Structure formats: structure tokens, C-alpha cells
Amino acid sequence: MRPLHKLALGVPTDVAVENLLWRFGHENNRPAELDKSRCGLLFINPALPLDGPFVARAVEEMKSIAADHSHVLYITLNVETGTSLVGIINLLFDRASPEEVERAHRCADALLTYLRSNQLEPYRARTDMMDKITAADPGYWGHIRALKQVFDPDNIIAPGRYNLP
Q1: Strand partners, 49
Q2: Residue 64 burial (CB count, 10 A)
Q3: DSSP element (H, E) containing 93
Q4: Domain ranges of the chain
Q5: Per-position DSSP letters for 13-48, written without gaps between them
Q6: What is the mean pLDDT of residues 149-164?
Q7: Where are the alpha helices (DSSP H) in the chain?
Q8: 3-class state of residue 12 by DSSP
Q9: pLDDT at residue 89, rounded to an integer
């Protein structure tokens, strides 16, 4: 628990990666060996209001959506500000199985659809979902892409995130 508490305080640790490896029988692997495992991971990280009943309903609904896709959600909620939480929601799957990979992506898409239907957005998005994120407000994201071009003309920082065509 100490390394995870320190992580919340901004101290880097590999413990979060170690916690992913157990699911596929690689609990003794070092985090640097994650690529050698079958562990696949997709995340959905929503920004949520600091409203207990709302968050409890949202978590139950997201767990239900995951169950409909034969997934279990691994969820961490962190208080971010006096009015907001952030959710770290992980989908673990066997990346050696094309069926599991496809099912995980369908589940992640369904979770994003659910969040948006409740006027919620991810606070952190995967590169493969940026087209869905930017489509919601093209004008806003056009400004973000223009700013990124000014500050990162060689597209070194977060390639593919803010400079979509």
C-alpha cells in the first residue's frame, strides 16, 4: 500500500504495473517485462462530480456495462479537487486472444458512450479514442491542435492526441 499511496502523492512507482501482471499468471515478472506477458489493458478515465450518490450509481452502471461484455472493472476513484473525482477504470484482457481484444474495445466504447450520455468526459484518453473525443466539439479541439502545433511543431509530445487531421 505504501508505494500506491506515494504514487497518489506524485512519487513514481512500478507497483501499478505489477498489479496488472497477476491476472495472467505473471505476478513474479518485473514491470519492465509487461510486454512479454499476455496482459492487455484498456482504460477509461472519467472526470466525475464529487457527489457520492451520483458516483455510486455511475460505478454500478459501468460495472453492469462491463458485465454485459464479460468484463470485470478494476476501479480507483481519487478526489481531485473540492468538487471533482477522477476515475481510473481498467479493463484487463488476454491480448493473445483476438476475441478478447475485440470484446475489450467494444466494452471501452460502451463505457465512453455511457459517460457521454451523462454529460461526462474522460480526463485522460487513449490515443485510439481521440477521434471520438475530438468529434464531440471540433471547434474546441481545433484550437487545441493549433496550440499544440505552436508549442510542439515536431509532434514529439503525445503524438496522435491533439493533432488529428
Answers
A1: 84
A2: 11
A3: strand 84-94
A4: 1-37, 39-124, 128-165
A5: -SHHHHHHHGGGT-TTS-GGGGGGS-EEEEEEEEEE
A6: 80
A7: 2-8, 15-21, 52-68, 98-117, 130-135, 138-151
A8: coil
A9: 92
Grid look-up 489493458 returns 41
pLDDT tens string 61-115: 999 999 999 999 989 898 989 999 999 999 989 989 999 999 999 999 999 999 9
Q: What is the pTM of this model?
A: 0.80
Going by the DSSP 8-state scheme, the letter that residue 154 receives in this structure is T
Q: Say how many residues make up the chain.
A: 165
CATH of domain 39-124: 3.40.462.10
User: Which strand (E) or helix (H) includes residue 85?
Assistant: strand 84-94
* Amino acid 34: pLDDT: 73
pLDDT of 28 higher than 70? no
Task: Copy the grid coordinates of residue 128.
Answer: 485510439
